[in-house]
Amino acid sequence: MTGAMTAPVCLCAERSPMQYVRSHGPLRFSSSSIAYILKGVPLFLLLAWATKAFTPDLAAKSALLARDLELRLEIVSTSRSLFKQLVLPFITGMCLLWIIQARKHMNSFLSILIPMMIFGGFLLVSVVWSDHPDDTLRRAIRQVILFAAVAGVVVVGRSQDRFVNHLQFFSVSLLIYEMLFLLIPHISFDIYGNFTGLHPAKNEFGGVAGAFLLIAVCVYRYYAETPKEKKIALLCVLGWAGLLIISGSKTPMGFVVLLIPLVFMSIHLLRLASITVIVIWLFILVIIPMFLIGVGEAPIDFYRSILPEEALTGRTGIWFHLLSDIQKNVMWGTGYGAYWGVGAIPEALDIKWSYYQFLQTAHSGFIDLVLSIGLIPTVFWMLGLWMFLTFTRNSADPISIAMIAYAMLHNCLETSFAHGVHFVWVLMLLGMMNILYTHAHKPSFRRGFNETSIPGRDPVADSNAYAGAVRNG
């Protein structure tokens, strides 16, 4: 064995299969290193597209000043470039070919898709009653392809360590990319002095910066081992925090401030935060309205009495305006993707000289789901998330559960749930599918369904023990 380790690598038949042939070029990467890098390419492509790194906004920020309100332009569906249309199918095809080649991973791949199939089925079936069935079909198919692409990206990585390393490397790359826009302030700041980076608006950049700030904190807390890894993670924390502050995006700031203490205390508290969001919205959308209807009171009058239209920076006013369209088909909605960005300005928002004309979302992922696919599918989706978080309580890794918790909070006051290829939506799918793929085969995962928490157990110690187990495979 000692001789085999010291002898030069040869091409003879007796060579151990564990030895790798190194290239003789200037890089001299081993074949294992090249394979490691290639397995991160699908994740890089997906995240680069979701964060709009391929198509940065290079126009000077002029807000609404460049728009002619007198024309009252119709909000119509615009065709995307051929390149952007082909990115997801390309990623999906590449991942499927990889999975087919490694047939032993096929069952895991299919098991990952099951939780998404039901939700994707709701989106596709809504074509039947959609006001714009062609748009619904096209956008629903894109979501199904997105589910497959995210699942494939996770399967190609094949391990928790690779997933975290590739995610952290992309975070560093994107941070440098965003900071370069500080050198061209006329296109990276809006007219109010808020930093937008390569994105068209501060809230869009804030959602990305807040997510990567939380990811960097998770890496520093649970995954970084060496001093070098700690320093890189800390630089990411400081860099993303600085950009988030100068962006002036208050909503992501609040989410991150709320979640970072939970990251340091326990991943179980992160999961509890996600479940709390689900419970609150179930009360808002179902339980409270049912009680009010039972006692003969209109739910909208009750909410108007406790939430003035200027509350939550004007979001409640948007929700009240949308109510008339929601009530047209509260159970099944207008059809997925058949409300925003199609046809003329929706009737409820047809107000001359109003910023409502330029909305593209309800600024709440839960409200948008009710508006597009109805109350019944929305409730099933939230209950499905609740079951997922409950079943995986003993197997969820810190970084994945943090991404899910961030997405749940983000969708309270912004919209990303099933909203095209929104970065926060992609992040949530990555977290869910990473949990399923990297942990579903472990015996502790299956036993965890029926396990109960032990009284007096230290959740921080549990988190540290789990993080060590993750790093050690």
The amount of helix comes to 55-70%
Number of helices: 20
How many strand units?
A: 0
Helix and strand composition category: mainly alpha
What is the subunit arrangement here? single chain
Low-confidence stretches: 1-29, 63-80, 445-473
Strand content: under 5%
Descriptors for this entry?
globular; 20 helices; 0% strand; mainly alpha; single chain; 473 residues
How do the helices and strands line up, and which of them pair or pack?
Layout: H1 2-6, H2 31-38, H3 41-50, H4 82-101, H5 106-125, H6 133-157, H7 160-180, H8 185-188, H9 202-223, H10 227-247, H11 250-265, H12 267-294, H13 299-306, H14 315-326, H15 365-373, H16 375-391, H17 398-413, H18 423-439, H19 443-447, H20 459-471
Helix pairs in contact: 3-4, 3-7, 4-6, 5-6, 6-18, 7-10, 9-10, 9-11, 9-17, 11-12, 11-17, 12-16, 12-17, 14-15, 15-16, 17-18
Q: Can you describe this structure?
A:
By secondary structure, the chain is an all-alpha fold. The chain has a domain at 163-264. The protein has helices spanning 2-6, 31-38, 41-50, 82-101, 106-125, 133-157, 160-180, 185-188, 202-223, 227-247, 250-265, 267-294, 299-306, 315-326, 365-373, 375-391, 398-413, 423-439, 443-447, 459-471. The radius of gyration is 24 Å and the shape is globular. Residues 1-29, 63-80 and 445-473 have low confidence and may be disordered.
